[in-house]
Structure formats: structure tokens, C-alpha cells
Amino acid sequence: MDFHHKTLWITGAASGMGKSVSLALAHYNTTLVLSDRDAEGLAVTAREAEKAGARVRVEVLDMSDSDAIFSTAQRVIDDGVIVNGLYHFAGISQRSLVTETPLENDRKIMEINFFGVVALTKALLPVMITNGGGQLMATSSLVGKFGFPYRSAYSASKHALHGFFESILAENYDKNIRVSLLIGGRIHTNISKFALNKEGHEYGKMDPGQAGGISPEKAARQIIKGLTRERLEIPVGGKELLILRIKRFFPLWHSKLVRKISPV
User: Fold this and answer.
1) Is residue 96 within 8 Å of 48, Cβ to Cβ?
2) pLDDT for 34-83, tens place per residue?
3) How far apart are CA 4 and CA 28, in angstroms?
4) The domain 7-260: what is its CATH number?
5) So where are the chain's domains?
6) Residue 150 falls in the annotated catalytic set
7) Among residues 119, 131, 28, 116, which one has the least CA distance to residue 81?
8) Contacts with 57 (C-beta within 8 Å, 6 or more apart), sequence order
9) Helices 251-260 and 242-249, interaxial angle, to 10°?
């Protein structure tokens, strides 16, 4: 993927990895469509991206509202915007046991992390194909590769992304559609602070593992490198990524290890 002069849509652009990737891509003379539900944070990202050389369009968007997603995408398309890349960073995590998590929390997490991503992808994919192809990226996680305590719905939503986007790639590779899945490890963002607890409220604190993770800026460099190479899976993080190899080559050891790692 050559980002120069491309039009790229980035969700979750108000903070964290979404903001850092937006600012990194701004240096390629790109046109950026930035979306997030946080209008104030989104405006800050937009100003910084413009200073870095990008042309920016802002779309305040709640990824739990499928109707708004489709109508927003259609408005952008109707305005003649040709999207070359769609990069999903918006999402929500969880900090609660399966036995104490009400079904409404599971549904909310799936709505944002899976169905919202699916809706925006479905809205843009046919046009991308018509216009000669493009690149899609969804943010998964280490727990998108295996289950983990206190993350049941979050893990399930990330597992679902793998099946959906790998299917897109299989169906549309010959139409010049490329797919990447970001396998995020420990990255210093606020995702744990905004995670849902068992009451459906914000967890409100940063996990120690998150606090000790790599910076969003370093994560952005790893992501850009992976997208440039059009890697199907882009591991992002530090030494904790070793667990992916343990899972692959030593599954029984991995199963025991996961039970011992502190989830919070």
C-alpha cells in the first residue's frame, strides 16, 4: 500500500492508536476522513492532521448506531469521496466475569466491536471494488486469537472480526481488496479505562499491563509498516507478543499460562 495522495477513513480517531495512525498518515499528503463519537477529541486530531499536511473531513459517528453509519457513509460517497483505505480503531473492552456479565453488556460490546465495523465496511466495500480496490484493516487483539479471563465478550467480538475479514479477502482478493488484522498487545491507551464493568459502567482505571505498554506513537509505526507490506496479521506491542508463538507451538502450555496471568 502506497499511502501518498490516498483517501483514508479512520475510525476511533479522537485518541489512542486511531489518533496516532491518523497523524502518521497525514504526512503522506493524504485526504483523511476521521470519525469518532468524541467530537471534541476528533476536532483536535483534525487540526493536528491538517498541520501535518493532510486534507481532513470530520464525521462524528457512534459505532453502535448502524443507521447512522450507513447514512454517514452514503453522504460521503454522494459527495464524490473515493475511499482507498478503511482502518477501524473504534472499539470497547470489558472487565467482568462471564457469570456476572449481563447479556445486554455482551450485546453492546458486539454491536460496537463487530456489527459497527461490519456496517461501515459493507457500506464502503462495493464502492471500493467499483473504484479498483482498496485496503481494509480491523483492530483485533491478542485475545482475538485466544480466550482470556474478564474479556469474554471482547474476545468473542475480536474472534468474529477474523472470520468476517478473512472471508472478505477470500471473496475479493482478485478485485484488489486487501485485508489486515491488527493483533494488539499492551499499548498505552485508555481502552481499559472505558471498558465495561459488570454493571455496564466504565471500569475507570488503567490496567498495569496497559500502563506499561508501548506508546500509541510506537504502535502507529508498527501498524504503518504492516499496512505498507499488506500483512494479513499485524502484531503490535512488545514482548507480550511472544504468547502468540506459545499458543501456536505449545497449546497446552499456553492454556495453563492464560489461567495464571492476571487479567486486571
Assistant:
1) no
2) 999 999 999 999 999 999 999 999 999 999 999 999 999 999 999 999 99
3) 5
4) 3.40.50.720
5) 7-260
6) no
7) 131
8) 31, 32, 33, 34, 76, 81
9) 130
Helices (H), the chain: 16-26, 39-51, 66-78, 103-110, 116-130, 152-172, 208-211, 216-228, 242-249, 251-260
- Which position among 28, 154, 173, 203 bears the catalytic label? 154
The burial of 53, by beta-carbon neighbours within 10 Å (0-12 exposed, 13-18 middle, 19 or more buried), is given as exposed
CB count within 10 Å of CB 195 equals 24
pLDDT reported for residue 260: 86
CA distance 197 to 11: 24
* Residue 51 burial by Cβ neighbours in a 10 Å radius (0-12, 13-18, 19+): exposed
Q: How far apart are CA 143 and CA 129, in angstroms?
A: 31
Do 146 and 164 contact (CB within 8 A), yes or no? no
pLDDT digits (tens, 9 = 90+) for 184-204: 999 999 889 889 999 999 898
pTM of the model: 0.96
